[in-house]
Amino acid sequence: MTSKTNANACRYKAVALVTFVAVASLVFVFPRRDTAAAAEPQRRGSPRGRSVRAPRRGYSNFSHRVAGHQRRACDSCHKFPSPNWEEVRKSDEAFPDITQYPEHSSCLDCHRRQFFARERPHPRICSVCHAVATPRDQTRLPFPNPFAAFDASPKGRTHVSDFRINFPHDKHLELFSQSRPHGGDTSRGALVRASFRRRGLSANRESDPKSCATCHQTYQPQGDSDEEFVTRPPEGLPEGTFWLKKGTFKTVPRDHSTCFTCHSADGDIAPAPSDCAACHRLPPEPGARLTQAQHDFDPKLAATMNVNDKLTLELWSRRDAARFRHEWPPHDLACTTCHDAAAMNTLDEATKKVPVMSCGGEGSGCHVEPTGDGILNIVVARKRAEPSFQCTKCHVNNGRLPVPETHVRAAAQPQTR
């Protein structure tokens, strides 16, 4: 009896051992085969047998440059006017406008999968429009228009628009102008039919009825204040050291308040407010801007000065002469003394550059003298004799570069305008 019991026990152990080996094979062998099979197509199509994972597309940032977005009409997403247009501006300043992100219905046709992705704390695509995206809190981020609240938000401080503005200066020059005594209120546009013609150095703000001031005013003017710098410079700043001054830049329109004075929803002047693409154009290449060699802006220098105003940084980053200050009394000229507004193409930075001979003056010389004693004449000659010389009369960074041919020609053959 005992021998039979021992035989049965051995038989059971043998069966158990065979079962364990079979289970172990299922656990360890088959997963390896599946993994190898899954990796095989990747190895075949990848160099040196390494698997290549397709880059994961980020949906937390929206870009108009995506091909699918470019194929859609503007009004397929942006409905004019937005439901909240009467709420985002004061009652006496409100006008029909696009002032809110598109509704979910504009996105769901293409992005249903992203909307219902199992991502925590919420699908990434929600971050495009929502500060918080939960059933209890669906607070939206400020929309870029109007710009004040948006610029103050974390997203707005670093936001760079996909678009450049297409504004035909030549079509507007004869349509509106502004004739206002010096020092008057320039916060509102006044429409007056007037002639816009080139003036010489003798023109001043009192006698020059110019349309430029309808859209462009002196930004952060010093006026009668004793404080001339945008931020307080350190004590003992060496003479001649550059520190950004007030009144350096001119404003540019950042919303529709001036444009919709004429191009209103109930008017008949094309383009209509709902025709976004007439003015908002994508540049040929993503983020097309002036190159580092062309503009006179250094982000580290701006940080040292504690300059963090968004408009100042945007205007400064497109300047090729950082030291030029519009508010300085000798520069208080007719805009057309230096700028050829009729030839400006806002989509082409080259057309907005000021010719160097604008600094030559009209008989008085200013910076380019017929006698060769002008500032430009002197620095060009010194740069030729001493290549390491850095001209800081007009430039901060560009003064280290070789003298442009335009400057050389102007200094060699001074002429009046």
- Helix-strand pattern: HHHHHEHHEHHHH
Strand order of the largest sheet: 1-2
Helix content: 25-40%
- Work out the radius of gyration: 33 Å
Structure notes:
With 417 residues, this protein is mainly alpha-helical. Among the domains are: 67-158, no CATH class; 355-417, no CATH class. It has eleven helices and two strands; from the N terminus they run H-H-H-H-H-E-H-H-E-H-H-H-H. It has helices spanning 2-45, 67-70, 105-115, 147-152, 154-158, 169-172, 212-215, 299-304, 310-316, 375-385, 405-412, and strands at 164-165, 280-281. A two-stranded antiparallel sheet has the order 1-2. Helix 10 (375-385) packs across helix 11 (405-412). The protein starts with a helix and ends in a 5-residue tail after the last helix.
Provide the fold topology.
Blueprint: H1 2-45, H2 67-70, H3 105-115, H4 147-152, H5 154-158, E1 164-165, H6 169-172, H7 212-215, E2 280-281, H8 299-304, H9 310-316, H10 375-385, H11 405-412
Antiparallel strand pairs: 1-2
Helix pairs in contact: 10-11
What keywords describe this structure?
single chain, 417 residues, mainly alpha, two-stranded antiparallel sheet, globular
In short:
By secondary structure, the chain is mainly α. It is built from eleven helices and two strands; from the N terminus they run αααααβααβαααα.
